[in-house]
Design goal:
- The chain is an alpha/beta fold.
- It has one domain: Metal-dependent hydrolases (TIM Barrel).
- The protein contains ten helices and seven strands.
- Strands 1-2-3-4-5-6-7 form a seven-stranded parallel beta sheet.
- The structure holds zinc ion (2 copies).
- The site of one zinc ion has 4 residues, from loops.
């Protein structure tokens, strides 16, 4: 059942989304696409980016719409095994309602899959064990430079051969802490740096997490207005895998 969700959207305010991504533009486009419940979640990579969130929040409040719009943020580790630029104080002062985050690097040049997986594992766990976080963003997304440094087959094998104990641990931690694992459209399902086979294998990875009880969120990760509305792909995947409603993330207003 499609309901029109998108809990990962960037804006122009942090200069990450391009100039098409003002809050009023984004909301008008989401209305055209028939979405009903969304979160604007721009990057907070360091505290210098905090100020711009005041303008995002102001524009969400000033834009009239029937869509349920949540004020959110996307966090990134500031270093390998480092911290997010975030705290309970920031959370309360700014009033963020949807907090998503995760790892954005392999943090290694290694071709050893066990080593690469262990680094991802540590950061997935640190994300999902943080009580302020609602979702782990785009597991196994990497920038083009990192993707191109290994062969397509290497990535296909990596995602296909994740050991069961990792899958069990990630799914159980997601369920226990109510921290969703994100189905990300732009960074995974429409990401042409990875091969079609990788993306097929990724669906099997999601199915394994689903059977182990993980909770899922849906995000476009749009940085351009044309990338909004593509979350129907991720919602279709939830349908195809028969993910029960109890395993689908739904935010609440503060
Ligand atoms: Zn990200
Ligand atoms: Zn993002």
């Amino acid at each position: 059942m499609r309901t029109g969700m998108d809990y990962h959207i960037h804006t122009y305010y942090q200069r990450c989304g391009n100039e098409t991504m003002t809050v009023p533009n984004v909301i008008r486009k989401l209305e055209e696409c028939g979405l009903t419940s969304v979160a604007i979640t721009d990057h907070l990579n360091h505290l210098g980016q905090l100020e711009a969130f005041k303008y995002i929040k102001r524009d969400i409040e000033d834009t009239k719409t029937d869509i349920d719009v949540f004020f959110g943020v996307e966090l990134n580790f500031q270093a390998c095994d480092g911290e997010f630029a975030y705290s309970q104080e920031i959370h309360d002062e700014y009033g963020f309602e949807v907090v998503i985050g995760g790892i954005h690097s392999t943090y290694t040049d290694s071709q050893d899959m066990a080593e690469v997986l262990d680094i991802q594992h540590r950061h997935f766990m640190k994300t999902m064990e943080n009580p302020l976080l609602d979702a782990l963003v785009h597991p196994f997304w990497f920038g083009r430079g990192e993707v191109d440094a290994r062969s397509p087959e290497w990535w296909e094998t990596l995602i296909e051969t994740i050991p069961d104990d990792y899958i069990q641990t990630w799914a159980e931690t997601s369920a226990k802490n109510r921290c969703a694992i994100e189905l990300n459209v732009a960074a995974i399902f429409y990401y042409d740096a990875m091969s079609p086979k990788f993306r097929d294998n990724y669906v099997d990875f999601v199915e394994r997490l689903q059977k182990a009880g993980a909770i899922f969120s849906v995000g476009s990760d749009a940085h351009d207005i044309s990338q909004l509305g593509r979350t129907d792909y991720a919602e279709g995947l939830l349908d195809a895998l028969r993910v029960p409603e109890a395993q689908i993330f739904r935010p609440a207003h503060r």
